[in-house]
Design a protein that fits this description.
482 residues; alpha/beta; Rossmann fold; 2 domains; 15 helices; 36% helix; elongated
């Protein structure tokens, strides 16, 4: 069979070697013409400098602009997405900034000290399978290696247990069939900066707020009557001398009030007792009605509360479990006990939707954000979609505005790949420009658009070792993926 010729290449001979060039001949300009053993291509009819006509912008002279010397900060403003500003952020290694091909590191506290952000909190947004959870796990575990403390108050899928083991932390599992119990009214570690009287008053206020939150949740958002406030205050005040106070004790006080109480106050207490009965002898029995059997280990590099056993439980049980674990960690990180700690809120939108009807749980979150800087905590909210927050209430409603305000308080926002239909809403809420929206639209798995404060943007590819991938991967049950 005749060997086919390849246009633009010289075919090899049978030995696999390229054929030798033919002899040269002098051209009219004194140069040499090399003749290759290949089929001749037709000569171009266009002159070397283009056709000669007016305004063709071609000529025999080549432009050679002089080199321009400037600082990296000026280049960062003149060529955004191509040059770093020169102010390198320190912290745990995340991966590569694909806009500048530079290593990317980040620590919320270091960024705050460098005045790159005004809050420590982080929002990580992306649909399932884009690498959102992988980032949270790899980033938090690396921060733990640098001395930061990590807490996961609600692990609905049991994914963080292996991560806690990996960094030398601890985990507890709560739910049906589990031995661990967390008392909803546990006072938490004693703050040595309080006097005895101040501490007792602080604990009383905490228990009052917690019981009211529980009752509102069980009543699906129903409000308290003024007389019910009085009945609850008197029941809790009667238990102030107890070293441990549980929901069971509060229920008993409300159901069987003191004979000296006015009849209307006693009747109001019985109404509250009927609501709390589900926790003592109803469908929620055994979860939160006894003393705590575990303690929060504030010295552990990572503390995880595995709530995967509550998968089949009622929405009320799951919401109360989130309330118990969040309060547990919050109480352990206050006052003189506070230290820099990352608090990872898995399935954050689901928590906000289900915690407490009427927005009390969300109000607590917003309040936490206001004091997070003082407490030294960095709240990480993992969301699937920005549109999930729209389900919290009608637009411009108080609840919806609180949710968007919570997102606005996160000065660091990390957007992973999203569905095409979600891009316009994210564009509006997250303040993207057209270039950033186009970047998110084209993100691959493991890549995220980082918005850091008002001025910084980075497209970061999260890099993990093979061993880390084995610890952090969450989609193994869905089939093999590259």
């Amino acid at each position: 069979m005749k060997q086919a010729s390849v246009i633009g290449r010289v075919p090899a001979d049978k030995s696999g070697r390229m054929p030798q060039r033919a002899a040269t001949s002098e051209n009219e300009h004194g140069g040499s013409n090399w003749k290759l053993q290949t089929p001749e291509l037709p000569a171009s009819k266009m002159p070397a400098w283009g056709w000669k006509h007016q305004h063709n912008l071609r000529g025999p002279l080549r432009a050679a602009p002089p080199a321009h010397h400037t600082s990296s900060k000026v280049l960062g403003g003149a060529y955004p997405f191509l040059a770093e500003t020169g102010d390198i952020l320190t912290g745990a290694y995340i991966g590569e900034n694909q806009l500048s091909r530079a290593p990317f590191c980040f620590d919320p506290w270091d960024a705050y000290s460098a005045e790159a952000v005004r809050s420590h909190s982080v929002a990580i947004i992306g649909v399932k399978g884009t690498g959102k959870s992988m980032l949270a796990k790899s980033w938090s575990s690396r921060l733990a290696r640098l001395g930061r403390k990590i807490a996961v108050p609600h692990d609905p899928n049991g994914e963080w247990v292996r991560v806690a083991e990996y960094v030398g932390g601890t985990s507890i599992s709560v739910g049906p069939g589990k031995a661990a119990r967390i008392n909803l009214l546990d006072e938490g570690p004693r703050d040595p900066s309080f006097s005895n009287e101040d501490w007792n008053q602080n604990v009383l206020q905490y228990r009052r707020a917690t019981v009211k939150t529980i009752i509102r949740r069980l009543r699906e958002g129903g409000n308290f009557e003024p007389i019910e406030h009085t009945a609850l205050d008197m029941a809790l005040d009667a238990l102030r001398g107890n070293s441990i106070v549980t929901i069971t004790q509060v229920f008993a006080r409300l159901a069987d009030p003191d004979a000296k109480l006015p009849p209307e106050v006693a009747d109001a207490g019985r109404r509250l007792a009927h609501t709390l009965r589900r926790l003592v002898s109803g469908d929620l029995t055994g979860f939160f009605d006894g003393p705590s059997t575990v303690a929060f280990d504030a010295s552990a590099p990572m503390m995880v509360v595995d709530t995967s056993a509550l998968k089949g439980a009622s929405p009320e049980a799951q919401a109360l479990a989130r309330l118990a674990t969040a309060n547990w960690i919050r109480r352990a990180n206050r006052g003189a006990n506070r230290e820099a700690r990352v608090i990872v809120h898995e399935e954050a939108a689901v928590e906000l939707l289900n915690d407490v009807s009427g927005g009390d749980g969300l109000a607590d979150r917003v309040e936490d954000e206001k004091v997070a800087r003082h407490l030294g905590t960095s709240n990480w909210y993992l969301l699937h979609r920005v549109a999930d927050l729209d389900a919290l209430g009608d637009r411009n409603s108080a609840l919806h505005s609180r949710a968007l305000g919570l997102l606005a308080d996160c000065e660091t926002r990390i957007s992973y790949a999203q569905h095409a239909g979600e891009i316009p809403r994210s564009h509006e809420v997250l303040g993207w420009n057209d270039t950033q929206a186009d970047l998110v639209r084209k993100l691959h798995k493991g890549e995220g658009l980082w918005q850091i404060g008002q001025d910084r943007v980075a497209k970061v590819r999260n890099i993990c070792t093979d061993y880390e991938l084995g610890v952090f991967r969450t989609d193994a049950l869905g089939g093999a993926r590259p």
